[in-house]
Amino acid sequence: MKKNKTMIVAFLTPAVVLFICIFLYPIIRTVIMSFFKIEGVTDPMSAWSFVGIDNYVKLMNTSLFRTAFYNLFRIWLIGGIIVLLLSLLFAAILSSGIRFKKLFRAIIYMPNIVSAVALATMWLQYVYSPQFGLLKNLFTKLGLDELAKVQFLDNEHKFYALLLAYCFGMVGYHMLIWLSGIERISPEFYEAATIDGANKVQQFRYMTLPLLKGVFKTNLTMWSVSSVGFFVWSQLFSTVTADTQTITPYVYMYMQIFGGGNTVTERNSGLGAAIGVLLSLCVVLIFTVCNKLIKDDDLEF
Fold this sequence. Notes:
- Helix content is 69%, strand content 1%.
- It is an all-alpha fold.
- It has a single domain, classed as MetI-like (MetI-like fold).
- The longest helix has 32 residues, at 2-33.
- It is flat.
């Protein structure tokens, strides 16, 4: 028994040490940094200046940060509805027994294996271009001249153009999560429902959806995490620095830590750490609310 304990300690120690060094220590350090004013993220603690909760108060009183958070909320809510519904629709279609299932699944997932930079460039140069863009040519051929004249990258339309492009790249990822949940459901359930007279729509509504509650929580959590880390797309859809239509908290955090933009005159890594803490709390809050509202303990497969 003593040898077994020694072996357990020997195997667990490297994993515990790595977890503390790679995950736990940075989290604790970031939380502590959020209560200090720090010019450089690598500055020693002796150069830190304690400010308490002033960093959080300053963020709440900064209009640009509130705008960034509002943009993030719109991305999470509107984009979440679009992505989760479309991905669920595609997953339901692919699990219905259609031909060339693997081909369609690969096509839908393909944007996820393309670099975000390349994907955003494609949308900017070949879809939204006011001279030879796909949308302009399509609307022109359809005789929709008013839509063909729309400047999708101006301040009025830039946010939704950005959101549409981002959702296009995320549908395939969430579709695979839905698909894995649907394929776990035993075919015997559907056979029994068919014998009882339930059609495909009724089976999907009263059988598939209730059995996907746990998968929905996973999808919502993963979408929240990816939305919080919204950075590359925002930077690529802005000209020189992020504007009010494209800025997100992650971009604002980058500006505070490394400097940049006309609105940031001094670097403050403590303020950036406070932003990171707030974003993490948002994800934890969403996950907690989902666990409270969505119960799937009584479901069986």
